[in-house]
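Deliverable D2.4 — example input (structure tokens):
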């Protein structure tokens, strides 16, 4: 039985349609998606069934614009607001990885708050203990750093007008995505 449509355009003329029916595909270790595309409804960490979904608005601008910080933070903020691109995604985690993420965020935020309390109370004491002040400061900063590491569901690489790309999803999730012809697998 002949199923090919002899009147269909050649594959080269419709690359995305041919290799990427969903608008989400992989290039090496990166997920690439067109704005508005639906990501596969699988856990980003293990490719298992999703128990919790997250909708995120992501923003990115070219690193070159960081140079405008030299002109002052207000100039940078204005330039960044104008130069940035945005995209919206909805992704999911299984119950195990969602719980793990919550526990780690709880620990990270808890460390920050504990550190802040130690810092403030250390400063307020007349016979201030420098160990408590510095320990509190380190705990608070460490907690904030941990939050910035644990919190993102994916690691954004770039966003442009039409598409965006990111890393940080597991191998099985990537493996289930289509790869455009000619793309190389870097990992
Ligand atoms: Zn999972």
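Example output (designed residues):
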């Amino acid at each position: 039985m002949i199923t090919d449509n002899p009147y269909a355009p050649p594959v080269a003329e419709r690359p995305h349609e041919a290799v990427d029916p969903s608008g989400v595909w992989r290039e090496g270790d990166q997920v690439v998606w067109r704005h508005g595309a639906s990501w596969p409804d699988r856990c980003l960490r293990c490719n298992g069934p999703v128990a919790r979904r997250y909708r995120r608005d992501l923003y990115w601008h070219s690193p070159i614009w960081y140079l405008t910080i030299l002109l002052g933070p207000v100039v940078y903020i204005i330039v960044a607001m104008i130069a940035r691109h945005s995209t919206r995604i909805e992704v999911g985690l299984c119950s195990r990885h969602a719980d793990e993420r919550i526990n780690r965020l709880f620990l990270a935020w808890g460390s920050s708050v504990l550190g802040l309390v130690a810092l403030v109370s250390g400063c307020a004491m007349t016979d201030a203990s420098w160990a408590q002040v510095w320990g509190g400061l380190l705990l608070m900063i460490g907690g904030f750093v941990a939050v910035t590491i644990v919190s993102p569901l994916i690691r954004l690489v770039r966003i442009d007008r039409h598409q965006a790309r990111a890393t940080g999803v597991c191998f099985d999730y990537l493996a289930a995505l289509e790869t455009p012809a000619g793309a190389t697998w870097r990992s």
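The chain has a mean pLDDT of 85.
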